Amino acid sequence: MSVDRIERLNAQLLKELGLLGEAHIRPDIPDALVTFTGVELASNLRTASVFVSVYGSAAAKRRALELLQRKRPILQDGIARKVTMKYTPILNFKLDETAERAQRVMAILQDLNLPDDQAPTPPVTDEEP
Question: Are residues 48 and 89 in contact, defined by beta-carbon separation less than 8 angstroms?
Answer without folding.
Answer: yes
